[in-house]
TrEMBL record:
PANTHER family in UniProt: F-BOX PROTEIN KIB2-RELATED, OS07G0183000 PROTEIN-RELATED
Top-rank taxon: Eukaryota
Sequence ranges assigned to domain KIB1-4 beta-propeller in this UniProt record: 15-356
Protein name: KIB1-4 beta-propeller domain-containing protein
InterPro entries named among the record's database cross-references: F-box_BR-signaling, KIB1-4_b-propeller
Organism whose genome encodes this protein: Eucalyptus grandis (Flooded gum)
């Protein structure tokens, strides 16, 4: 999913097909869409925050259906929302937001609701499409969000949709969490420490099944320390052919035209009048498979005939036998380093491509002619899109 071109009118987006290398413009979205922040994409649905940080679901593929999620003030870290009907920017004004630093120092800040969007949800996933199951009795669809400064987990079920209900904290032991995913009703939460929590959501109330004490891989930890002045990392959890994979993404803070990460001090030399523009870019991935018996992450040099998709959306994998338009043994990625996209005028949202585990190289997906793509791209998989 890409933003509309600047000369295209209306509220909507473009869907770029990796198979056909063509883009289809979709319009007729609600007015609030153009001013929303996307924080997730699952089963064909987008998880969005409007300009007042209110979360909602939108289906861009089937008639632009919209479902309201529980209000933002029901998140545990939002202490109070102050609303003003005379606010020029909308009904919402500000919220008291509680942040935790170093796991013990608590501070409270009064934030405009538009600013709160940058802190309240870092990623959200769905267990299924809300309309794929008919269950009037229980929760046929769950939404799980990584929220707040501590990157904890909050959940709501389809009973809570429509703007009522509340977000409920899912009590886990391994916050901060870096990624989450569903696989046939089973929920996996990846902690920053490499541990994995597994929950059963095939019932009215989720039940924890196990904790897998798989510490963060030493190879990636050592590489991150060695490159800490040049690179940052993101981690993802994804199912592939029944196995659970961990992907560690290494991206350079400043990467020159030759694909080499450089120090910030090197952006300005004696010959330059102004600093070089060297946007952050993904350099490579480490891939691991979870060994359930030893509870360890085992390094992989290849994922065979699989293509993995990561970014701000629900991580997925497919077989290239079923989808030959994709490249096997590869990781397709979009930009999920959202802060620079909103703060920098020159770049942001641009960091997307395909990484080949065989060659160790990154190549582009499509040429957009700019390093500034706002809002950032997302993968969109229809709810009936197979992953086996």
């Amino acid at each position: 999913m890409l933003p509309l071109d600047k000369d295209e009118v209306g509220h909507g987006c473009r869907l770029f097909s990796l198979k056909d290398k063509t883009a289809l413009a979709l319009r007729g979205f609600p007015d609030t869409f153009s001013d929303s922040r996307c924080v997730g994409s699952s089963d064909g649905w987008l998880v969005l925050l409007d300009k007042d940080s209110e979360p909602y679901l939108l289906d861009p593929l089937r008639g632009v259906r919209v479902l309201r999620l529980p209000p933002v003030e029901t998140f545990p870290c939002v202490l109070q929302v102050l609303r003003r009907d005379d606010d020029d920017d909308g009904p919402g004004s500000a919220a008291f937001y509680e942040a935790v630093h170093l796991k013990r120092l608590r501070t409270t800040a009064l934030l405009p609701l538009r600013t709160l969007r940058e802190y309240i949800i870092s990623k959200a996933v769905l267990s299924a499409s809300p309309y794929d199951q008919d269950d009037d009795e229980g929760n046929s669809c769950w939404v799980v969000a990584i929220f707040g400064s501590e990157s904890k987990l909050a959940i709501c079920g389809s009973k809570d949709f429509g703007g009522g209900g509340a977000w409920t904290e899912l009590t886990g032991k391994h916050a901060p969490y870096s990624d989450v995913m569903f696989y046939y009703g089973t929920f996996f939460a990846l902690g920053n420490d490499g541990f994995v929590e597994v929950w059963d959501f095939n019932r009215d109330h989720p039940v924890k099944l196990m904790e897998i004490k798989s510490s963060f891989p030493q190879k990636s930890a050592e590489a991150a320390r060695a490159l800490r002045n040049l690179c940052f990392t993101n981690t993802y959890i994804v199912e592939a052919a029944g196995e659970i994979l961990l992907l560690v993404r290494f991206a350079g803070y400043f990467v020159n035209e030759h694909g080499v990460p450089i120090e910030e001090d090197d952006l300005l030399t004696e010959e330059d009048i102004r600093p070089l523009v060297c946007p952050y870019r993904t350099l490579y991935f480490h891939v691991y498979m979870l060994d359930m018996n030893s509870e360890e992450w085992v390094g992989l040099d290849s994922i065979g005939e699989r293509a993995v998709f990561v970014g701000g959306s629900h991580s997925r994998s497919v077989s290239v036998r079923d989808f030959p338009e994709f490249e096997g043994n590869s990781v397709y990625f979009t930009d999920d380093n959202w802060d620079p996209a909103e703060q920098d005028d020159l770049y942001g949202g641009h960091d997307m491509g395909v990484y080949s585990l065989q060659s160790g190289k990154v190549k582009g997906i499509c040429e957009l002619g700019s390093d500034k793509i706002e809002p950032p791209p997302f993968w969109v998989f229809p709810s009936d899109y197979p992953s086996k």
